[in-house]
Structures are given as C-alpha cells and as structure tokens.
Write a structure and sequence with these properties.
heterodimer, A: about 150 residues, two-stranded parallel ribbon, 3 helices, B: about 90 residues, Ubiquitin-like (UB roll), five-stranded mixed sheet, 2 helices
C-alpha cells in the first residue's frame, strides 16, 4: 500500500530554478535540495520554501553527490528558518524521470521528497517520489503559476 | 571539551528526537564515542566496522570537513560545533 504523502507544491520560479540548474549542468547530472516546513513528526507539508542549487561533487553524467558544503549551507538556512531539508532533486540526462536503482538504494530519508528531472528528448519532465524500504511511490506535484 | 553536535533528521530518533546534543571529548572520535555510549543506536550510522568514519557520513567541524583535517583524530575545543551530514547521492 502506498504511504500517505503530501503534494509537492512549487512556485513557478522554484520550478524554473530547478529545471534551469539541471539544464545548466549538462552534460553532467545536476542536483540540489529543497527546504520547507515539517510537521511535528518530521513529515514535510509539501510546501517548499527554497530550492538550493548544489554542486554535483561527482561531476558525472551518470551519478550525483550533493556537495557536502552546499548541503551544510542549506541545512543551516533551513535551521535558521525553523525548517528542514525536505527533499533533494537531480537530473537524469538520458533516462526517464523515475528513481534509478542507485537512487533507490542510496535514498537517505524516507520522509524526503525525491524530485527527478528528465532531460531526455525535448522538454524537461519533472516528477517527484518518496522512497521507503526500496519502495518507490509517486508524489503529486503542483506548480503555482504566478 | 564540550561541543554541540548537530544531527541530521535520520539520526534524531536515536537521540530522543533532538536536533542537536552536547557531548564531551578532546577529538571528534572521543565525542562520537561519548555519543554512542549515550545513544547506542548511532553506532552503525556513524562508524564502519573498523571504527573509522562511515563512508556515507560527512562531518564538519564548524566550516571544515574533518576528512580534510585529521578525520576522527581532529581536535575539538569548547564551543565548536560538529555537524553530521548524510551523503546525499544517487545515479
């Protein structure tokens, strides 16, 4: 059974910041973090306060590692705002917007929202998931036009 | 030496839900030993089988990655902050 999950709500500028960073990262995979409010049990509400573009420490078209210094900076900003890291995003340059086996195996936190941006073909495709016990469930994404 | 240790969300359940804890030690390794003595559930997340730093964990002393200092032998002073970060990676 899928576990309960919020809808990831992004503003149009946040959506464009994510996709833009992914395009800028080509030919390598690009990555970044999401911060936002969480409920008492640490579950994200689905609202995203900031998208943090990060460096891909792997500098690779096949894998990514969020640069730990960028992760530290995002964690500090989230903490200062009374928020948390609520998710991570990265691009797939030549495959679909679905977590790879590597993504599933290396998933850090079952509460995080994992955003995938596929750059294969023409238009970027952004989808979101939760990964728990190596099980993948899609999370709805709502982009507020403004 | 007493230092503040900031915990990633994943380690907080093993520390009664706290986002940061204080622990004593003269080095990062000693601070971690004190942490594990208090919260045994952290052992497998922080250290590998040989007692080294777990490869899926990054630790910063203030603004510096301890891998580029003296790893677990890195000295700490009163008032330092250790931040434990998960390795966020995939393919």
């Amino acid at each position: 059974m899928p576990f309960a999950s919020p809808t990831l709500r992004l503003t149009e500028s946040q959506y464009l910041a994510i996709v833009g960073h992914c395009l800028d990262g080509l030919p390598d995979e690009a990555c970044g973090l999401l911060t936002g409010p969480v409920l008492g049990d640490g579950e994200p509400t689905g609202r995203c306060s900031q998208v943090f573009p990060a460096r891909n420490a792997d500098a690779s078209a096949r894998t990514y590692t969020v640069d730990s210094k960028d992760l530290l900076a995002a964690m500090r900003e989230a903490e200062a705002a009374g928020e948390e890291i609520v998710g991570v995003w990265h691009s797939h340059t030549h495959t679909v917007a679905y977590p790879s086996l590597t993504d599933v195996r290396q998933a850090v936190d079952p509460r995080w929202i994992y955003v995938l941006v596929s750059l294969e073909g023409g238009d970027p495709v952004l989808r979101a998931y939760r990964i728990r016990d190596e099980r993948v469930d899609e999370v709805p994404v709502a982009v507020a036009r403004g | 030496m007493s230092v503040e240790v900031k915990l990633p969300t994943l380690l907080r359940p093993q520390a009664d839900g706290q986002a940061s804890v204080t622990a004593d030690g003269a080095t990062v390794g000693e601070v971690f030993a004190a942490l594990v003595a208090r919260y045994p559930g952290m052992q497998d997340n922080l250290l590998d089988e040989s007692g080294g730093l777990h490869r899926f964990v990054n630790v910063y002393k203030n603004d510096e990655d301890i891998r580029y200092l003296e790893q677990l032998e890195t000295k700490v002073d009163d008032g330092d902050t250790l931040s434990i970060l998960p390795a966020v990676a995939g393919g």
